[in-house]
């Protein structure tokens, strides 16, 4: 695993697909409150 962030540090830029396959980047939400959930489906 990579290194963690210091408290109050900005998260690095990344992009992830939504449920429809459309990609969204963190920079689209800069300055807004955002909750990101990571979960695994299946076994």
Record the SSE blueprint.
Elements: E1 15-17, E2 23-25
Antiparallel strand pairs: 1-2
What does it look like?
Strand 1 (15-17) and strand 2 (23-25) form a beta hairpin. It is extended, with a radius of gyration of 13 Å. Helices cover 0% and strands 14% of the residues. With 43 residues, it is mainly β. A two-stranded antiparallel ribbon has the order 1-2.
The quaternary structure here is single chain
Largest sheet: 2 strands, antiparallel
SS elements, strand count: 2
Looking at the structure, what is the overall shape? extended
Percent helix among the residues? Answer: under 10%
Question: SS-based structural class?
Answer: mainly beta
Please tell me the total number of domains: 1
Please count the helical segments: 0
Strand content: 5-15%
Sequence stretches where pLDDT stays below 50 over 5 or more residues: none
Enumerate the strands of the largest sheet in spatial order, edge to edge or round the barrel: 1-2
Terminal CA distance reads 22 Å
Q: Rg to the nearest angstrom?
A: 13 Å
Offer a few descriptive terms:
mainly beta, 2 strands, 43 residues, single chain, 0% helix
Question: Could you write a compact summary of the structure shown?
Answer:
The protein has 43 residues and is mainly β. It contains no helices and 2 strands. The chain starts with 14 loop residues before the first strand and ends in an 18-residue tail after the last strand.
């Amino acid at each position: 695993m990579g290194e963690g962030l210091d408290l109050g540090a900005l998260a690095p830029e990344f992009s992830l697909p939504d449920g429809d396959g459309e990609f969204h980047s963190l920079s689209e939400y800069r300055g807004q409150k955002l909750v990101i959930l990571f979960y695994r489906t299946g076994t």
